[in-house]
Amino acid sequence: MNKQKFKNRLDDSVKLLLAFTGNYCFNELSENCVFTITPNVRIPGAHLNAREISLLNTINTNNGKLYSAGEVVDLLWQDGKVPLWINTSAYSSKPEVTIINLNCSRRLRREDDLNTSAHQYPPFHPGVIQPPDFLKTGNGKYDINWNSNFEELVKPKTFWQKISRFIS
Question: In the chain, at which end, N or C, are there fewer CB atoms within 10 A of the end residue's CB?
């Protein structure tokens, strides 16, 4: 796959992801997107070649970094090879930007090896990560930022924090 085709597929899959996610959340999603990249496993496996291990090390070193679409393409496109699959999901959104997580296979493959029957824009596969039911509204929609706020919601409360809501 050439680099421009990979970029076009990223762009097209992001449009599809935003439309798909918009059906499930009540937030307005910004079309201005930045990306995080996470490998499906952070540890190098014996089946990975030197280039794949080098890419994995780069991704691990930059854990949490926000990438532009151009930076994603420059990092993940490796001489005509791309990750075998890339699961995409909207992580959070503010009026000015949406953060999209790219969960990637560590294996790099040529276009002929990508799954073209199951995915509209291989290797990209859009998906929606659903929150627990208690975070959904009556109509089943949710706040797209639930994932970034989730730790605070489920953090155990101290005795005083629990009773303070009754005192105030």
Answer: C
